[in-house]
Amino acid sequence: MSYHNPGYNTTMQDSNNQYYGGFPQQPAYNHGGYPSQPYTPQQQGYSGYAPTPGFPPQPGFVQPGFPQYPPQNTEYMGQPQMPPAGYGAYDPEDQSGKDFDFTDQSIRRGFIRKVYSILTVQLGITLGFIALFMYHRPTKLWVQQHPEMFWIALGVMIVTLLSMACCDSVRRKTPMNFIFLAIFTLAQSFLLGVTTAKFSSQEVLLAVGITAAVCLGLTLFAFQTKWDFTVMGGVLFVAVIILMLFGIIAIFFPGKTITIVYASIGALLFSVYLVYDTQMMMGGKHKYSISPEEYIFAALSLYLDIINIFMYILTIIGATRD
Fold first, then answer.
1. Nearest to 235 by CA among 272, 261, 262
2. What phi and psi values does residue 294 have, to the nearest 5 degrees?
């Protein structure tokens, strides 16, 4: 008489009390009138082997003389157990830190530090040009005697801006991206220096202070707010087109009131753009984000937002004090 276990593929004979299949010999096993029954997975006990037929498995039950084996949770022995659906996926709402993608977050933090480092250098160069044109009279007189320098700087600024905005190889390939960004920053700083030379130093310093306070407040707001401004890209683009048309109309109808209205709308629009570009840089819970490879494009966007806010605020101050 033999006992066949399909789960373990072992055979046990009662006639000579021998057991084949890798388990130690168990004297008088299955003797005593209990009929042999085929093994089913439901009869599996906690110790990982088929218990004596007729006795239901109990928690912690161990057949004497048999080694314990870890319990299996699959329906059939040997079948690999698959992890539950969604295991290891990143949930931005989960604050437990269990399945948190630390690698992606560290890359994003390094990207943000690089962007703000580049932006700090750009703003430092721009402030240096503004101070030079305001307080160094020979430089101011030289620029006034050479008006063609303004148009040359304007052309260089437009060419480098379009090159970085339209060509991926220009803004991603090092060191070409830094060279183009440096040329653009110098040209833009020169234009700002020429423009601020027409205002008094008190007006320029007041505009710099207001711009710094506004940009700091908007940046902190963009970092902590739950509102997602990254979905407003199309609306902001249409608003810029409308602002340009309004500016063209304002040229033919000059006046103090229309200048203040135009500058106020421009400052408000680019303030929203600053929040939009900051959240695009942050990524995370927002719908759209900028790739960490686009650090030049992110720094350029923030720089242009701050410069436009400064220019519109300076225009408002100059119009109110004219």
1. 272
2. -100, 45
